[in-house]
Amino acid sequence: MSTNALRSPRGIRVAWTAAHAAVAGVRGWARLAAYAIPFTVLPSSLWRIAAYTFHFPIADGPTRAPSGLPGISLELYVVLLSLVSEAAAFTGVGLVARWGEVLPRWVPFLGGRSVPARAAVVAGAMGALVLTLLWSWVAVRFALGQRIDGSPRSALAPLNFGDWRGVLAVAAYAPVVLWGPLLAAVTISYHRRRR
Asked: In which domain, by residue range, is 60 found?
């Protein structure tokens, strides 16, 4: 699809449909699970951007600090992290969509080629495993009143139940715990359908 076609509402609609339309043989639950994956990441992305890029007063503690990356402000880092997170989450939709079976023509050197089912299944399974372990670890550490590394959490940590800001942060991050299990379920469905 050309960039000129994307400038019209019809072109955007066509691109949206091409990116999201499930292929034949995808079970309804797998389609819904795949579509839900990006929405598990969205609340935390929006919360981070609101708190650390636009400095809305929704986080306990400081929201202005160095990013730790030379030449990149915390505000830009948070936006980039959120965009990368959403793009990574959107790859789950590929496990039910046509572009998860045949690469789109616009992909350099590989466009139009079939996606090796084994590669997609291994990538999906590894992603599901890592995400499930990571976010389960974070949830357990948080429930124990600790940081990810096991050290005691500060009273000013953004994720806490001390007031409405902490509850909002917890509510924004809670759905991300489902990312790994949903990806695992969709990956299993993809594997069964493609074998």
From this structure: 25-194
* pLDDT attached to residue 110: 86
Q: Which residue has the higher pLDDT, 12 or 140?
A: 140
Question: How many angstroms separate the Cα of 171 from the Cα of each of 20, 102, 141?
Answer: 27, 37, 16
- In this structure, is residue 190 part of a structural domain? yes
For residue 67, how many C-alpha atoms fall within 13 Å in the half-sphere facing its CB? 15
Total domains in the chain come to 1
Residue 30: count of CB within 10 angstroms of its CB: 22
d(C-alpha 153, C-alpha 145), whole Å: 6
The predicted model scores a pTM of 0.84
**Domain presence at residue 31:** yes
- List pLDDT tens digits, range 9-62: 777 777 777 778 888 899 999 999 999 999 999 999 999 999 999 999 988 766
**Are the C-beta atoms of 179 and 33 separated by less than 8 Å?**
no
